[in-house]
Amino acid sequence: MVGRRGAAAILAVAVGVAVGSVAGCAGRVHAADGTTVSFEFAGRQREYIVHAPSHPVYGPLPVVLAFHGGGGTAAQMERETKFDRLSDGAGFIAVYPAGYERSWSDSRGADTKAGAAGIDDVGFVSAIIDRLVADNHADPARIFATGMSNGAMFTEDLGCRLGGRIAAIAPVAGELSQSAVATCQPPQAVSVLEIHGTDDPIVPYAGGPVRITSNGHGGPGAVPVSSAEATQQRWRSVDGCAAPAAVDTLPDTAHDGTTVTVSVTDGCRDGSRVQLYSVAGGGHTWPDGSQYLPQAIVGKVSRQFDASAVIWQFFSTLRR
Q1: Comparing C-alpha atoms, which of 21, 70, 20 is closest to residue 218?
Q2: If you compute the radius of gyration of the chain from its CA atoms, what whole number of angstroms results?
Q3: Is residue 12 part of a domain?
Q4: Where does the record place a coiled coil (predicted)?
């Protein structure tokens, strides 16, 4: 049996967390790799890290919002995903928001600390987008969102509830909750790229209760998630995809015990697309990211593809 102290330690890292925090002062401060912006929203100081491309880019810029997992930080998400490097090469703005008490209010309600506190995280993200458009020359037609674990499930929620502002989402290791499947109906089509390991020990690939939650004292949540396939089916329905999915397998270049099947559904409403990277043998991890805990706790990191590069490649062809 895991003690209280052990459960807290497992929770802190099992959702994709490394040690690190974001400065909490008002206004703007220069961080190691970006600028931390702090502002008041709904009576609380909220913040995000923004990284502009290192080389001058002309015209409005696309934005990638990257949401950390439960227990994580914006700075950790910045380090782990390496979107800053892609930003410099491709010319987009990389943004890493910070959650309330290191969590996001997704569609699972009180399973997360932010949900239990009634935090309006969708409104917070909408306010960030407003600021990016006003202050950072962001292109409102090319706003994209990705995330890990609790951040991925929040990304799903953003697609459902903020689909009029976000062109595409790319959740990693986080599905739609079963409660959200019936209610998810964005005003516009939202392209979706899902990435999920079949051996994820935290957020089950086949659906069911999330096994470690930020408001559950290290225990399972009360609101189950849908399976990866059911989540895909819902997004195909939302986006009016008529054609069947085309399925292919990536070449085994890493020989690491994982294999990747890619399901692609094109021809959806308004040019949207729905895709799933199903990582057989993959765990609760970011493909080609760090093995932040032993495989016995979080499962295996696949080296068959770079999740960040695949996500940006997907986003780069899309707009609202």
Answers
A1: 70
A2: 18
A3: no
A4: none
- Segments in the chain forming alpha helices (H): 4-14, 74-81, 83-90, 113-116, 121-135, 150-161, 178-181, 228-238, 295-298, 307-315
Task: Identify whether 310 is part of a domain.
Answer: yes
Q: Is residue 17 part of a domain?
A: no
Instruction: Render pLDDT for 79-111 as a digit per residue (tens, 0 to 9).
Output: 999 999 999 999 999 999 999 999 999 999 999
Domain harbouring 39, CATH code: 3.40.50.1820
Query: Residue 102 region, left (φ>0) first, then alpha (ψ -120 to 50), else beta?
Result: left
3-state secondary structure (DSSP) of residue 271: helix
- Do residues 52 and 30 lie in contact, with contact meaning Cβ atoms separated by under 8 Å? no
Tens digit of each residue's pLDDT (9 = 90 or more) over 185-229: 999 999 999 999 999 999 999 999 999 988 776 788 999 999 999
State the pTM of this model.
0.90
Structural element, H or E, at residue 291: none
How is residue 51 written in tokens?
Answer: 């990284």
Amino acid at 50: V
Are the C-beta atoms of 150 and 284 separated by less than 8 Å? no
Strand ranges of the sheet holding 35-41, from the earlier edge strand across to the other edge:
27-30, 35-41, 44-51, 93-97, 61-67, 138-148, 168-172, 191-197, 274-280, 259-265, 246-249
Q: How many domains does the chain have?
A: 1
Which residues have C-beta within 8 Å of that of residue 37, sequence separation ≥ 6?
Answer: 27, 28, 47, 48, 49, 50, 131
Helix (H) or strand (E) holding 190: none
Cβ-proximal residues to 82 (8 Å cutoff; 6+ apart), any chain? 308
Range of the domain at 211: 27-315
Q: Report whether 41 contacts 127 (CB < 8 A).
A: yes
